Structure formats: structure tokens, C-alpha cells
């Protein structure tokens, strides 16, 4: 009887092992996605983070993802050659915009492969390549909402400790000066979360030491010096940098790197569609103590 009871378990285990084997065989025989990168990016992004993101991307796409490391100063022909040598017939190829000339070269050499370059809005679209730009408007609106939520939380906390130290201002550090319509989009996001003030905008390359009444900061460019000095306000950072390497004051990161956008970018490349994609926001849960605040921020970021 014991042997009979064990038989179904053995059959189930054998069936599960067979299914796993078949799935693995199908996965590794599917054409891979090719993503071009370089060592400098991996240093900024974080080697372990890149590995985890690649594994997650493979699982979502259910196909291998091949990273191709090229020299930072490599010419278009060498970038193309490295990509061609890595995979003979990829499902599609994604290039960061800094290698758009290599993407153009590759597209000419491999006309049957969907090729996409990911860059900033306003950059010139490469020839013969799908161009996917960051959706700045969506990013600014979501950042406005999240900044308002963080500002309100900081204001409430300061007022509870000392009404005289209550904070109220939201500051935006710009990589390049935002157009008026972009400022209005950011403001609308903040207004939709109940913010009644007027955001302060710091000019590109401007120097600033946070004022006591600054309740939240959005950094759209390089804010290294600010992060080193800031001890007052929660920060929303637009960056590719590894969150583990940032100041504890960074509460959210908006990431528009090729790794962050790979899954929807593959779909757009395969369809041959130029377009925009919003950054991928990440809330650093361990740096936001309130569960209610985490829920509000995650909802606003969607």
C-alpha cells in the first residue's frame, strides 16, 4: 500500500521535472534580446542590480537577454561589430542613445533585425532606427504628485515637533531649464495631491544649500553636491545610479535606463513604433517608515 501511495507522488515529480526541462529548452532556444551597454554604466547602475534586472527581464519576456559591453569611445563600426558578434540573429537590439551611430550602422548591416535607440525627448531620431524617448510630461506629473505627498508629510512632522519649523516648499533642481508648460505639468501633479504653494526652481549648475522650510526636493540632473550637504528634506532623484549608493534622504528614484525600459521597449521595437516611455519609478521602502505614506507614494507613481 505504501508503494501505491508513493506512485502518484513519483509521477507528479517526474511530470514536473519534464515540464521544467521542456520550458528550459524552449527558453534557451528562443532568439535573445540584445542590449548594448558599457562598463561605466554598469559601475553607476550597480553590477548586482544589473544582473537582477536582467534575470527579471528574461523571466518577463521568457527569452534570453544578452548584454553586449562596448568601449565607451568605440566608433560606430566597432559598436555594430560587437553587437553582431554577440548574437547572430537577435529578437531585437536595444541601444542607449549615446551609441545611436552604432545603432544606425547595425541597422544597415542587419536590416532584418528590429533596432531601437533609447534617449531623451528632444534628441534627434537616428536614421533607420526606432527612437524611444523618455516621456518627460508623465514623469514630471508623477514627480509633482509624489513631491507634494512627501512635502505634506514633512510639513506635518515638523509642525508636530515645532510649529515654528514647519516646512512647506518644494524645490526642483533642473538639469536644463524646464519649459513653462513642463513646469505647469509638474505643478498640476502637485496640486492634485493638495499642494498649495509655488515650487522653487534652481537653475542648472546653480549652487544651493537647502533652506529650513524646504519640505521636498526633486533632482532632475546631477545633484551630488546637494545630496552630500542635505540633511533636511526627502529627495526624489531622476537617475540611473544604484539606490544603494545614494544618500538616505533619497526616497524615490525615477529610472529611464535601457534596463528599466527594456520590456516595453522590446514590444515597441518589434512593432516598429517610435514613441515615448515614462521612467520606471522605484520607492525605496526601507527609507519610508510610514506604511500609509508608502501606499500613497506608490499609487501616485502609477
Question: TL;DR?
Answer:
The protein is an alpha/beta fold and 302 residues long.
Name its key features.
302 residues; six-stranded mixed beta sheet; 12 strands; 19% strand
Give the SSE map.
Blueprint: H1 2-28, E1 33-37, H2 39-45, H3 47-61, E2 65-69, H4 76-86, E3 92-96, H5 100-109, E4 115-119, E5 130-134, H6 136-161, E6 169-173, H7 180-191, E7 200-202, E8 214-219, H8 224-229, E9 235-238, E10 250-255, H9 258-271, E11 275-277, E12 280-283, H10 291-301
Parallel strand pairs: 1-2, 1-3, 3-4, 4-5, 5-11, 6-7, 6-8, 8-9, 9-10
Antiparallel strand pairs: 10-12
Structure explained in plain terms:
46% of the residues lie in helices and 19% in strands. It has 10 helices and 12 strands. The strands form 2 sheets. Strands 2-1-3-4-5-11 form a 6-stranded parallel sheet, sandwiched between helices. Strands 7-6-8-9-10-12 form a 6-stranded mixed sheet, covered by helices on one side. It starts with a helix and ends with a helix. The model is unreliable at 159-166 (pLDDT under 50).
Amino acid at each position: 500500500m505504501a508503494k501505491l501511495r508513493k506512485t502518484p507522488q513519483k509521477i507528479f515529480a517526474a511530470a514536473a521535472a519534464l515540464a521544467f526541462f521542456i520550458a528550459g529548452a524552449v527558453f534557451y532556444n528562443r532568439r535573445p534580446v540584445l542590449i548594448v551597454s558599457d562598463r561605466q554604466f554598469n559601475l553607476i547602475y550597480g553590477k548586482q542590480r544589473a544582473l537582477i534586472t536582467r534575470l527579471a527581464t528574461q523571466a518577463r519576456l521568457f527569452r534570453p537577454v544578452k548584454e553586449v559591453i562596448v568601449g565607451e569611445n568605440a566608433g560606430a563600426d566597432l559598436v555594430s561589430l560587437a553587437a553582431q558578434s554577440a548574437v547572430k540573429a537577435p529578437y531585437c537590439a536595444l541601444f542607449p542613445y549615446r551609441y545611436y551611430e552604432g545603432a544606425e550602422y547595425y541597422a544597415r548591416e542587419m536590416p532584418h533585425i528590429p533596432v531601437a535607440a533609447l534617449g531623451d525627448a528632444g534628441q534627434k531620431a537616428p536614421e533607420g532606427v526606432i527612437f524611444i524617448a523618455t516621456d518627460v510630461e508623465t514623469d514630471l506629473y508623477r514627480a509633482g504628485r509624489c513631491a507634494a505627498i512627501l512635502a505634506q508629510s514633512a510639513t506635518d512632522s515638523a509642525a508636530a515637533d515645532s510649529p515654528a519649523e514647519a516646512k512647506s516648499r518644494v524645490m526642483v533642481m533642473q538639469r536644463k531649464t524646464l519649459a513653462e508648460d513642463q513646469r505647469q505639468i509638474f505643478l498640476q501633479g502637485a496640486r492634485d495631491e493638495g499642494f498649495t504653494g509655488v515650487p522653487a526652481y534652481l537653475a542648472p549648475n546653480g549652487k544651493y544649500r537647502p533652506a529650513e522650510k524646504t519640505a521636498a526636493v526633486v533632482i532632475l540632473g546631477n545633484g551630488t553636491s546637494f545630496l552630500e550637504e542635505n540633511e533636511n528634506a526627502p529627495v526624489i532623484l531622476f537617475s540611473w545610479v544604484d539606490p544603494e549608493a545614494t544618500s538616505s534622504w533619497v526616497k524615490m528614484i525615477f529610472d529611464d535606463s535601457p534596463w528599466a525600459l527594456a520590456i516595453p521597449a522590446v514590444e515597441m521595437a518589434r512593432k516598429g513604433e517610435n514613441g515615448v516611455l515614462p521612467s520606471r519609478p522605484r520607492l525605496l521602502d526601507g527609507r519610508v517608515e510610514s506604511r500609509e505614506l508608502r501606499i500613497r507614494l506608490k499609487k501616485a507613481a502609477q
